[in-house]
Amino acid sequence: MTTIKDVARLAGVSVATVSRAMNNSGYVGAESRRKIEVAIAELNFYPNEVARSLYQKKSKFVGLLLPDISNPFFPLLAKGVEDKMNQMGYQLILGNVQENMEKEKEYLKTFAQNNVAGVLSAINGGINKLGGIPFVMLDRVADEEEYGVHSNDFQGGQLAATAIAERNPHEIVVLVGPRNVPGSLERLRGIEEVLHARKRTYQLLETSSFQFDATKETTSELFARFPKVDSVIASNDVHALAILQEALRRGIKIPEELQIIGYDDIPFSKMLFPSLATISQPAYEIGYQGAELLCDRIEDNYIKEKMIQLPVKLEVRESLRKKEIE
Amino acid sequence: MTTIKDVARLAGVSVATVSRAMNNSGYVGAESRRKIEVAIAELNFYPNEVARSLYQKKSKFVGLLLPDISNPFFPLLAKGVEDKMNQMGYQLILGNVQENMEKEKEYLKTFAQNNVAGVLSAINGGINKLGGIPFVMLDRVADEEEYGVHSNDFQGGQLAATAIAERNPHEIVVLVGPRNVPGSLERLRGIEEVLHARKRTYQLLETSSFQFDATKETTSELFARFPKVDSVIASNDVHALAILQEALRRGIKIPEELQIIGYDDIPFSKMLFPSLATISQPAYEIGYQGAELLCDRIEDNYIKEKMIQLPVKLEVRESLRKKEIE
DNA sequence: TTGAAAGCGCTAACAG
DNA sequence: CTGTTAGCGCTTTCAA
Q: CA A62: distance to chain centroid?
């Protein structure tokens, strides 16, 4: 391993000068700078980040906490985070928590042990602080959080409910996401508001988990409890797709006999047939802007908005019936 | 931040003794140990990993290089890696490279700068070495690699081709993955061997990328160039699903008019209707065993197998026709 | 404009 | 069994 010392020796200057040259801090004579650059190139030197972060008490790492990396929504979000963070010179420590509080605690501890510069978390209801380390919540942002990026769940709920309500629903079932996921209730509020205003009745089906594996359970429960359901407002696309496809398997016609709308707009939703109508959340954008916000916090920049809310969008696709002529 | 010094002071011993107690290295008297434990608990102390890794020249980080985190195969693999690595006390630095050589180089550099203990890479054809840092390749393992975990691509190709050949194919199209992905050619060998032996003709369609977004292109090309295709052997599930669903959209009956077999067995393949027959690769297991192998290398344990090949399995599902009675 | 030196928190000789 | 001490590679006073 070549160190700053080797560079200093080869350039014929002191390590302090090399350090100043590398970091553009303090004065460095033109001649010294040139010699240092040559030496660095010659030795193919790059500074040891560990030593840096020991001194600075702050590393170039950012912790990323995700609830379930196998739900395609989160890789998208992670990409947004990664792109921005890399651009700013940070690396991500991956923490895939699978709705497991113990793992979350473990991760927060190792984040602290490694002097992370900040944490981005899509985990609801966790321990969202870590002595002075900046936190930014992504997607799942509880009311009491200070910094976060999420999309407008209330509006999303309204859009979804309106899309269904306008399409001659007879028996509506609303899938409600886990109570502890902040957005779930907001969406439900939006949905109920619209449905009440339009005097539509509906049934609720609570899903205890957003985990990928939970879909089978939800699906069987739906068809068992509500055999006459003809319209589903789902809590996410993975669940919606599971239901849609199970319906096809049972010979139920989509959308004539069962229409369904999802939430998230994961890449598969557009790709499958019939394509899944959904409320599109800007997953990549949430990650990207969350990363921006975190960088601003890390660098103590002025922050215009602590809580960023991104708009959602209705994607009308083949899983919805034609609109009624009003 | 509370340091080992604080603990030493409170326990009335030296930092060396605290260090020995924490690491169970060297002698520590019972009385001292007790006092240290009390002090640690009292202060809620945990050691700074940065300082540790500076001294050891080796951190508790492992770099994970992935080609495309939005392809559901890789999150699965990542989970396997994460589970094993966490269990062994390591953290993952995420490197999602998107088939971009520049990004890969960047990552390798920062891995080195951060004293990673090792690297797990699912990137083909990269710069798979880093001055003395142990590398283990996952899934995409070129011939010249020394350490890796992958599944038996030749066998996978054979299984896929056999499944199709036994089911009365008229016009077979074989999707060939990117040339630079080592497994692609192996699979093709397996496929061709079977098809030749059974005297089946077939067409090749090369796909230049495994990226999620590349599916649309592949799909249109397939139907444009081979309008009479009735059997597809795909290079991965994402492509296979795209084709299958596009066929449905065009009113082509699955599997009567078009049968198709994928590769990977991502979670969606089982969930969709018609479900996708595929060659199941043990993605989680590849990640997990890769992590095990890497740990053994890091700890300089005896290594039985440097190159681990896991079996693949044919999953017969609804996208295949009934077998011919022979 | 530069260099010497202290120190970030921890580990490991080494001497007691 | 325990403490003193010298670093790990880097940044940053501070004095020259």
A: 14
